Amino acid sequence: MARPERIKELLYDYVGVVTYTGTPLEKNAEGFFEGWFNSVDYLKDHPDQCGFYDCKDDYLERKIPWALLKGKGDKTVVLVHHTDTVDTDDYGVYKDIAHKPDELYALFKQGKFTISPEVQKDVDSGEWVFGRGASDMKSGGAMHMALFEEYSQEEDFEGNVLLLGLPDEENSSAGMRSAAYLMKDLKDKYGLDYVLMIDGEPHERVDESKYTIYDGAVGKVMPIFLARGKLSHVGQIYQGFNPINLLSAVVRKTELLPEFVETVGTTTAPGPCWLYMKDRKEVYDVSLPLTAGGYMSVLPLTRTPKDIVDRLKELSIEAFDEVIADMKEAYKPYKAASLVDYGDLNYTSKVKTYDELYSEVLDQDPANKEVLDQLEKDLVAQIRKGDFDRVEASFRLMEKTLSLHKDRDPMLVIGIAAPYYPAVNNRDLDNFSDMEALLDDLAAFSRETCKTDIEVQNYFTGICDLSYGMFTESDETIDYIENNMLLWGSEYEIPLHLIKDMSMPVLNIGAWGKDLHMYTERIKKEDLFENIPKLSDFVIRKCLD
Q1: For the chain, how big is the Rg over CA atoms in Å?
Q2: What percent helix, strand, coil does the chain show, rounded to 5?
């Protein structure tokens, strides 16, 4: 079967498998891959070179489908894609048809959906495949599987190819984080030398006449804040300290903060934004809340988690000072009119990282470690029962830690919530010049073979599993992450030392996709079936030569 027909066949079969992220349905991918393993003669002849690897400590018991083509030499290219998709609720009454590309396309042709003129244009062209996961990202998986099949039929294939299907990318990348252990096992068993990781995420286009290749991926850091105030009845508000006031001041000082906008090479990352902010009261009463919590998203290109938290701590102290000053000023007219004297409101700005708070709590009483360890175990059990999510558990752990501290004054604590995605770029590696030369060769090949230019974006800004293809920061940075990330080692962890030891260049080479996570999700046929596989094949062979 010709390559385009085989990619289409694999894509339609794969899209037909329901694998909604964060649900037991993700395991349906295992059945799909079991069938694929049994259809590839090479893998049937080498059953020890494919299988399913357990995601570490995964409450859904998801597994990573993997297949290794062992050719000549040690050089190895790793092909990755994620097996999970978002759900299909946005398709309404046609949600079950979302997994059947031809039937779904017929519905679009019949006008069963309200769509924009741009989508209508693509429907009328007949040049796109519609369906949940058709773009994000079973298209990349189908392309990689088709190429793997071709390579497996070559007698003297140069090098090795490791194909990975990764669960949970749409949530917190449990698949890719666990894949590091699998890659280490295979590296040791077969003497593999990892020279490149290729992801097949769909690309966006600024210029419709050019393919977009990414040689890195944006990072994601989620600072989490817990503000503690001082309780009082609302009738005696000046005796208290409102943590909502404090947290709001931090939000106003940091939302869309321009200094966090980074431009590196061809990519600009947006400013930070807050995703959640709420008081921690569980029932209504007429007193101030004791605590308020919130978390934000920062998408760095070069900043480390420590750089980010250190700056946020400085800004939080400024916000704290401003709140205290505002309270004192606001109290003056009330005091003058009521003749009620609550004192001078002499508060001090107190802002700590979670590691600082935790260390002080243990210094005050070493027995607190056992208390917090047990609480963490209990919280993880409740997460896995579905009582609440990881962020809520993080807030509860912060609250308990803060309650054990002898200081009862208003305070702000800053930690890091999972998930964490390191920012990666090939410029961070010693062999960057080799990758530049490879991309120059790829651009020439694309112009000659596909009649299309390539635009290289230095970071894939959609957040993806390539973040775990390398890690080039210091061991001190790893220690900082481990000490300040809530639930690290119990409910969430990244084998950063292992990834650092296996660090390799990364590229994202995928077809043109549009409207990811929307009911109009679609992938460009010519890209997926014809040209992007040619580019991927060129890169793979060039790196294995």
Answers
A1: 26
A2: 45, 20, 30
